[in-house]
Amino acid sequence: MYEVELKVEADHDAVRDRLEALGADRLGVVTQEDTYYDAPHRDFAATDEAFRIRRESHGDEAIVELTYKGPKVDAESKTREEIETAVESGSDADAIFRALGFEAAAVVEKDRDRYHLNGYTVTLDSVDGLGEFVEVEIEAEEVDDAREGAKEVMMDLGLDPDEQIRTSYLGLLLGDAEE
Amino acid sequence: MYEVELKVEADHDAVRDRLEALGADRLGVVTQEDTYYDAPHRDFAATDEAFRIRRESHGDEAIVELTYKGPKVDAESKTREEIETAVESGSDADAIFRALGFEAAAVVEKDRDRYHLNGYTVTLDSVDGLGEFVEVEIEAEEVDDAREGAKEVMMDLGLDPDEQIRTSYLGLLLGDAEE
């Protein structure tokens, strides 16, 4: 399975109207605060890896997850190894990694308002310091068909898939050029 | 608060008889499997630190904990900074640290049979590859008084506190000399 994802910068108000008109199911808002770490022994920007603590809250529920993202496994699909486990305490996990020499390099905070539409997940992201974005994504075996479908969803929402941004929010915050 | 701890090597059968005769409360057996990691950027043996994943089971219950132990803060008390948090998956946490360049250096497996006696915790440890040990410990503000009390408990159990071993089980397994 591949995760096919398109992301564009877009004001949310018009997109929300379109989602309602198209009868999309609203899944609710999740708040994510991701702290990305620099390693003491490896340059993650050069190795194309990432290591982070995610604090996610959804109403009264809160979870903390530890995530490692490996480098892209090929040039085309943006597929990465991703290893994740929940931890009880984000502050204790942070203290452990700081003691080991890791340093918090950047924090990405966003509110994610998620909808389901025609089998796709449409996410309205409000990212602190960056602005408003819309992501259309799906898990699929057939990457090409899924990408065409995601482009159609984008157009149904009044968005231009050619304005796709491939850089992560972390990369945008750190000022990385388009990948 | 300090954790005052005395440890000696001792056959358990005679100690169990003494614990029962003295009316100690048995708390039950816990199994611990501790995987200690080498760091890619730091020699923990030289810096007197440790980083491990502990898998602990007690009947049907199982927990996994991530622990960092800092160097001893002074020469006398064996006090260390210890930071710990539970994680959901030991295998995912292990995979994350291996991906970051940490390597499993040693595994310490033991069954711990714990008793309460006169305010002290008496633990009968059966350590794979090392043998049987008895630990007497207490948390206290007054280290000297607590240590004298722990020695008395040792003697009540028919053990000689002068045979105290100060090296950790990890250190003993790795063949470290007495600290």
Task: Describe what this molecule looks like in 3D.
- Chain A has 179 residues and is α+β, with helices and mostly antiparallel strands.
- The first copy, chain A, has one domain: Beta Barrel (Hypothetical Protein Pfu-838710-001).
- Helix content of chain A is 24%, strand content 47%.
- Chain A has helices at residues 12-21, 44-47, 90-99, 143-156, 169-173; strands at 2-9, 25-38, 50-58, 61-72, 80-87, 103-117, 120-127, 131-140.
- In chain A, strands 1-8-7-6-2-3-4-5 form an eight-stranded antiparallel β-sheet.
- In chain A, strand 7 and strand 8 form a beta hairpin.
- The longest helix of chain A has 14 residues, at 143-156.
- The first copy, chain A, is globular, with a radius of gyration of 17 Å.
- Chain A starts with a strand and ends in a 6-residue tail after the last helix.
- The mean pLDDT of chain A is 91.
- Chains A, B: Residues 1-175 form the CYTH domain.
